[in-house]
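Protocol step 4 of 6: structure prediction from sequence.
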Amino acid sequence: MTPSLAVADPVTANRPLLVIIGPSACGKSSVVRELQRRRVIRVHPTWTTRPRRADEGRRCVQHRFVSERAFDRVCARRFFVDTVQPFGLPYRYGLPAISIAPAGPLDAVMVRAPLVTRMAELVPACLVYQIADMAERSARRLAARGSTAEDVAARLDDNRQEMAAGRLVAHRVFVNNGPLTTLVDQLVACLALDVPAPITDGGGA
């Protein structure tokens, strides 16, 4: 499916921060990893006290996993420009300061839709791309992570609300209903249209 434009205002900055959003198990982490592998983006990882999932290896580019004590130490040094504890969950996220490079891979961060407004206050020039997926595919991914049937049902309900919220802030919405390479190719093509400055696409190693 061709990505559709949402209702957010267009980005006018020469080098915006790419903000990739999407609900649980929509495939956004896979998209972020592939974009970085192709050297299209440079990911700024958020720090989190969330336990690492089985599919998040030591080379996870979108998050840096730390203990509560380590998070507190870094926070005390004012390393983070913002911290959140989203969705009533017991773990926290911290965002380090982000400097936008004038050329090369586009600077990017992965967050959830309810945090886009806060992100825009920190980095006014944001280009927001939402990844969406079918409920059945998301349910299979959640089950593969070890979620119970009750947890999967609750997450899917949250996902519907988050996708609706994301469409209000996203500049483009991409439906993850095919091969990963096809989806990433769509994002790269749209970035070429949305970002005036050239973006490196080395094709990966």
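Step 5 (inspection) to follow. Confidence is low (pLDDT under 50) at residues 1-10.
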